[in-house]
Amino acid sequence: MDDRRIFSSYWGHEQVVAHFNDEFFIATLLQFESSLASCQEDLGIIPKDAVFPIQEAISSVIVDDELIEKLNASTADNGIPTIALVAAIKEKLDKVFHKYLHYGVTSQDLIDTAHMKALQQLNQDFIRLLGQGLRANVLPWLQQADWICMARTRQQQALPVTFGYKLYHWFMPLLASLESLQALQFPVSLGGPVGDMRAFGSQGKALTAALAAKMGLDDFGAVWHQNRQPVLAILNAYEGVLIQLRKILQDWLFLANSEVGELRLESKGKSSAMAHKNNPVQLEQAMVLVKIALDSVQNYKQHAIFSSERDGVSWTLEWYYLTGLDTQLQLVVHAFMKTMGLIEWQKEAIEAFTKSFEGQLQEPEFMPELMDELERKLKTLD
User: Fold this and answer.
1) What range does the domain containing 80 cover?
2) How far apart (Å, rounded) are the C-alpha atoms in residues 329 and 112?
């Protein structure tokens, strides 16, 4: 995003939460090491007397600027921050137990798991924010569902339909995409140095399941160091949401055109040279943010092919795109909610275009059922 202050209010939103922040990331890495030791002890992979010292050492690690800088230096030197973190835990741990800390795992296990935990938090917030916005704004619009408006094909006036017909085709696909987000899985990563779980013998799958439960994550059922399907599944679901938002905003920008005038925004949108104008700036901003997020999703997908057993280039690019999408997706949902709250539907303008098509409205018999379905789904949103 543009860091210039004069554009900060346009791009940013004070309620955006950085799920990929240093403190959350490090806390998740520490949680992974603690949970791993506990699960390994339960399965007899490490001695019972090793767990308490390991967990005590982990709990005594202070996440402060000094530690963050050590991890920063480790990433600069080694391409990963985890070496410095493991070293910080070992400073607090009796040397007798060093070999049982981080036992059988590799940095990719920790980092992938931390990113999944952040994505899980982002997903929960995104679903909640979008759901609340849709319920608050679209339900009142259903009161206008019987307005007569024009359907347009290839941007030309076609035949009259109800406003409810428009609402259904804007928001039912979006609600379906929202359900896809709710069904997403966020798996723990556990594979070891080359992804074959060799240190765990026959207990690899049991350890993965136990660790997933302990971390509040899912079990993918296989090692996914090379196979980025878990990440792709998440981004594909968000791509579906973003594509539908883009379709809605594209329609609204057309309807806000001064020659159409069916939609008006309660916002300034002034021109520096033409005082009569009311530019749909908020609609444009929301569309820009949707396109930025879509670009990030599609750019990531170009790099989702991991060569060999670990690909340092593709993996690091993944960190970059996921961190950016954390902010971008939140900006999208805040901008879309703000836009919905500013919309004033212009009944007179909407119905003016239908006058030459009087008597040509043929609403499908099943339309009331569709409206009931849309209303039901909206009311279930938190």
Assistant:
1) 16-103
2) 20
**Residue 75 near residue 29 (C-beta atoms within 8 A):** no
Q: Which of 103, 128, 145 is the last residue of a domain?
A: 103
Contacts (Cβ under 8 Å, ≥6 apart) of 288:
none
Separation of alpha carbons 214 and 236, rounded Å:
27
**Same domain assignment for residues 91 and 126:** no
Among the listed residues 185, 134, 122, the one whose alpha carbon sits nearest the alpha carbon of residue 329: 122
Q: Could you tell me the pTM of the whole model? A: 0.93
pLDDT in tens, the chain (382 residues): 667 888 777 777 777 889 999 999 999 999 999 999 999 999 999 999 999 999 999 999 999 999 999 999 999 999 999 999 999 999 999 999 999 999 999 999 999 999 999 999 999 999 999 999 999 999 999 999 999 999 999 989 888 899 999 999 999 999 999 999 999 999 999 999 999 999 999 999 999 999 999 999 999 999 999 999 999 999 999 999 999 999 999 999 999 998 899 999 987 665 555 556 677 889 999 999 999 999 999 999 998 888 888 988 999 999 999 999 999 999 999 999 999 999 999 999 999 999 888 888 877 778 889 999 999 999 999 7
Label residue 238 exposed, middle or buried (CB < 10 Å: 0-12, 13-18, 19+).
buried
Same-domain pairing of 251 and 156: yes
CB contact set of 190 (below 8 Å; sequence gap of 6+)? 105, 109, 113, 197, 204, 207, 208, 211, 223
Q: What does the alpha-carbon distance between residue 290 and residue 353 come to, in Å, rounded to a whole number? A: 30
Question: Residue 255 belongs to what H/E stretch?
Answer: helix 229-255
Q: Are residues 153 and 27 in the same domain?
A: no
Token output for 60: 């005594």
- From residue 145, alpha-carbon distances to 138, 150, 336 in Å are 11, 13, 21
Dist CA 364 CA 182 (whole Å): 31
CB neighbours of residue 104 within 10 Å: 21
Total number of domains in the chain: 2
Report CA 304 to chain centroid distance, whole Å: 17
